[in-house]
Amino acid sequence: METKDLFALVHPAIAVTVVFPLIGIVIHFAWQTRQRRLQPSGESKSKIPPTVGRDHVQLGKRLTGAVVGVCLLGLAFPTVSQALQNQTFTKQPWEALFLVLMFAATIASLVFLYQAHSRLWRVVFTVLTSLGVLVIGFQDSLLGRQQPWIYRRDFEWQVSHFYYGIVVTVLMIISLAIVQEIYQDRSNRWRLAHICLNSIALLLFIGQGMTGTRDLLEIPLSWQEPYVYSCDFVKKTCPTPTPPPGQP
Ligand code: HEM
Ligand code: HEM
Questions:
Q1: Complete DSSP assignment for 101-139
Q2: How far is the CA of 188 from the centre of ligand 2 (A)?
């Protein structure tokens, strides 16, 4: 396999081997946390250990990091491969520098969000991390490119791996930001908001599994690119291959 194809597999491979198993464990603990909390107070000792809430949050925090990481990887691959192809590092160094700084600033904002305690700083770093992902995702529009580098599937945004990915990443960032609110709020409104938002996130994660595997089917290996990209994607036809020499 060519090196470029190998790099293209890094994002889906990490999503499948690291992120999705983590989602399963986080949801298992989420369900147990809820079951334990809603258990009638008179009932005899619960079989669910009291640590499930803590385990859910600990792994949830890691999940946020993993999802932001895998999202940035998904965006980094087309960005870097297109930058190399278009010689952006030498021809438009300012554009390359801007992109490198955006990736670095987004990661730094997430690190600060993990450490922030006051509500103000948590809001600031939530906005900055989410903005970073959005700016990198919409770099084509911001930089006025004719040929898009990021495949957003705007013509079919309802089933776009890009839009699902951006929304679910922002939902994970918000979950990390509101941990304190969930614990401090006696009316359970933040808890309810968390459950609603993350039920949507769960559906989007399933969508990511489906749209990601579809995209893997659609993207050709690099040696197949010249042939596949000469196909007409609207009419769904490809040029007839030339017959081998000696055949009519
Ligand atoms: C797909 C992902 C997730 C789902 C479906 C989910 C769902 C849930 C559910 C159902 C509960 C129990 C609510 C109850 O007591 O009624 C819960 C609690 C909680 N979740 Fe999540 N969650 C997810 C991810 C996260 C993440 C990423 C974080 C933080 C980084 C997080 C932080 C919390 C906190 C702080 C609680 C309260 C735990 C406690 O009571 O001890 N969750 N979540
Ligand atoms: C948490 C889960 C995931 C998130 C947040 C995520 C996010 C992203 C993002 C933002 C992109 C760049 C936009 C695009 O090209 O569509 C991308 C690309 C991609 N993702 Fe995912 N993804 C996830 C899971 C998966 C899975 C499970 C697969 C496949 C099994 C997958 C396969 C791909 C492929 C093939 C690309 C295209 C890369 C390219 O442009 O060459 N993703 N992903």
A1: HHHHHHHHHHHHHHH--SHHHHHHHHHHHHHHHHHHHTH
A2: 34
